[in-house]
Design goal:
single chain, 121 residues, alpha/beta, five-stranded parallel beta sheet, Peroxiredoxin, DsrEFH-like, Sulphur_relay_DsrE/F-like
Length: 121
């Protein structure tokens, strides 16, 4: 089995190019068979809500919705910071498939003793 990958993202649609790059890295890892987790904090928590990750960041960039679909199809998951999520008064019932609330302890539990390659955006 390929090693795990964790992509930490703090930015939401206020910087769609950063979101696109983080998703491209996550999709690349997941499609190569790596267990992949995106840890969403701050404004990135909104991306885990149904219908939010839409649009195209730049000329030639893939649509965010397509990247989200590819990521889910490849088995990628989202861990959404509950403090950030709750402080924005977001609705858990609108979380997309593959997304769950969880903080740093669940992230470290997911990583486990084998470690993970990490990226932060």
């Amino acid at each position: 089995m390929a090693g795990k990958a964790v992509i930490s993202l703090t930015t939401g649609l206020e910087d769609p190019e950063r979101v696109t790059v983080a998703l491209l890295v996550a999709v690349g890892a997941a499609e190569q068979g790596r267990p992949t987790l995106m840890f969403l904090t701050k404004e990135a928590t909104r991306l885990a809500l149904d219908g939010v990750a839409t649009g195209i960041a730049c000329d030639g960039c893939p649509p965010l919705a397509d990247l989200m679909t590819r990521y889910a199809k490849a088995g990628g998951t989202f861990l959404v910071c509950p403090l950030c999520f709750d402080s924005r008064k977001l609705d858990q019932r609108q979380l997309i498939g593959g997304a769950e609330l969880g903080g740093t302890v669940p992230m470290w539990q997911w990583i486990g003793d084998e470690g993970a390659t990490t990226f932060s955006y």
